[in-house]
Amino acid sequence: MIPLTYMMSLSAIIFAIGVAGVIIRRNILVMFMSIELMLNAVNLAFIAIGSRLGSMDGQVIVFFVMTVAAAESAVGLGIIISTFRNRETVHADELTLMRW
Amino acid sequence: MTVEFPALALILLFPALGVVFNLFFGAKWGRTSVNIVGPGVMFLAFGVATWAFVRLLAMPAGSALAMPLWGWIEGGPFHADLALRVDALSGVMVMIVTGVGALIHLYSVGYMAHDEDFARFFTYMNLFALSMLILILADNLLMMFVGWEGVGLCSYLLIAFWYTNPQFAYNGRKAFVVNRIGDAGFLLGMFTIVGTLGAHGVWTLNFVELRNNAALLGGAGATAACFLLFIGATGKSAQIPLYVWLPDAMVGPTPVSALIHAATMVTAGVYMIARLGFMFSMTPSTLDLVATIGALTALFAASIAIVQPDIKKVLAYSTISQLGYMFLGVGSGAYASGIFHVMTHAFFKGLLFLCAGSVMHALGGEQDMNKMGGLRKKVPITFATMFIATLAIAAIFPFSGYFSKDLILDSAYESGHFWLWLIGVVTAGLTTFYMFRLIFMTFFGESRVDPDKEHHIHESPAVMAIPLIVLAILATVGGWVNLPDGWLWGDAFVRFLAPAVGNFKPAIEANSFDLSLIALAASIIGGVLAWVLYIQLPGIPFLLAWRLKPAYDLLLNKYYIDDLYNLIVTRPLFWISDNVLNRAIDSYAIDGTAEGAGLAVQTSGQVARRAETGNVQHYAFVYLLGALGIVAYYLFLVTGR
Fold it and tell me: Does domain A26-90 have CATH number 1.10.287.3510?
């Protein structure tokens, strides 16, 4: 059996990559993918701990997260496409209409 | 014996209705309605007052009519009610105020015939009458104070009646502020009474109860209270040092000068002292002060009056001087003599002002006597009535002023104030001099009227002439109610007032016939001097003015008292107001706080909004920092402990 530490470490690494992607990458499509990465890192942690505790709760929550993520992807991609059509860019630096 | 007499309320109700009518309907319903209602309510009030007075005369001496209206102030053991009371003293006053007031209201119909603001004028006049009647009919000091303040307000409103002239408005403010200084004294006096009597368990300002408990005040309490109340009287009755507002009050319409600043309001101080005579009699030092201030004011104002060129200014200083006589009378302890002079003065000084108004009316508003002269034939009624009034104020036998002034001088002498009596006699000479100077400059000699005004000189209409004639009759016979002791009905007036104000107790005996001859001689000398200087040798006054220029300038400039007050009070006050209160406190402290608060918000907003970059990654980064912070908090501080 794979030790919990490994799985939690993997989850943390993937989450950190996701965070870094959101903060660093300028392309909002990539930022969006990074958010999905973070969600799945969390999913991994849920599964791991659920399996360890012998509980179904972890798996249930994962399904919820995946459902929400699917809906969120649909909306998010819609926004991104719409933004691109209007502004012809997906660069976060250039999408600063709401600044002071 | 006190009898309930509900009709007393009508005396207040009629002027109050007049105020309401003139205020809300006067301008809408037009001049005729105002001309009927304005004086009409006064005549109705006079009718009721006469009814009450006749009733009072029929009752035994010392009786009073009373009308409790309703409870007013209840504060623990202290209470003050709205209640009206007419005894001999307030009966006389209420007759003067409603009677002379009604005549002057009637005169105003003619005088204000060309003024657009007639409704406002009669609103104020009725309001004044209402306030004055509250002052007189009040049965306690607090309600009297309401009237006291009310007449002050109306005085202000009427002095500044033609408010578009900034100088007039300023004079109105001056009268108001100077009066307020006196009113502060009145208030403090009331506090002293309530405080001192309250310490003995007597919580009242009611005149009857005060009289019954006056002994509890003790010497010091009575002195303090009377001194403070006298300050109030100097303000309202234009005595040294607070007389400065009265000459400036002459910018108001002339009927106002006649009613408020001669006949009624300014005598309120005398009335108040007579009303509280039992208290003033307990404190000889204050009484001496009253007499001294009165005599000095009489002399001081009369000396100014002899050089003033403005007809109304002469009468204003004359009023101050006559008020001084009244204070000399009450200060001598002879309260009835002061009230007697209040009455005769109301007749002849009211008449003098109305005549002056009639002259001004004829000359299109001219007040400078250097531009009058020779009017005797052109305005015969005005001349005749004014001449009678002059004889009365000059205390020439048998006109009314003779009897009242004589009684005052007599009382002053017999109370042991020889020097004050002497001042009074000298002032009597000065009075005749300046009054005959006024008559001679106005009605005799050659006309010095502006040629363009010369042709429309006209006698006043009947509505103005009738009050003049009635007042002239009163100014002639008004003094006969109190003849010297032993003649016909004798001192009926003094005996009538005695239960209300107490008897005069002479300190020294004197032959009042000799005294009165001396005063009469002084008056006649003054008159003859005026005749010589202004009729026989008209060049002499100018020569004198030139030779005695410093003295003349001193008098013409009213002893520079106004300038002195400006220098030591008004200008420092303005300086403090402008530099400290306006610039330092208002502009810096208050505005600074308010504007500073706004500025602080604005500035911090300017800084803080820089955080709103609009870049979603910046927000995400801050969000991350926050999340890390929370995690760190739980890791290191909560679980790590």
Answer: yes
